[in-house]
Amino acid sequence: MLDNKSATSKKAVPETVGSQLRRPDGTGAKSNVRWWIVGLLFLTTSLSYLDRIVFSFLAPEIRQEFHFTPQVYGYMTGSFDIAYAVGFLFAGIWIDRVGARIGLASTLAWWSIAAALHAIVRTALPGWRNAEGLSGFAWILAWLAAPVMSLAFWRAMLGLGESGNFPAAIKSVAEWFPAKDRALATGIFNAGSNVAATVGPPMLAILSAAYGWRPCFLVTGSIGLVFAVLWFVTYQHPEQHPHVNRAELDYIRSDGVEEESGPVIRWRKALMLPETWGFLVARFLTTPVWMMYLWWLPLFLNDVYKVTPKERAWAVMGVYVTADIGSVLGGWVSGHFMRRGWAHGRARKAAMAMCAFCMPVGAMAVLAPNAALAVALVSLAAGAHQGWSANLYTTISDIFPRRAVASVVSIGGAAGSLGSFFFASTITGYVVAHWGYRPVFLSMGCFHPIALALVHWLMRDMHKVTLQTV
Question: Is residue 286 part of a domain?
Answer without folding.
Answer: yes
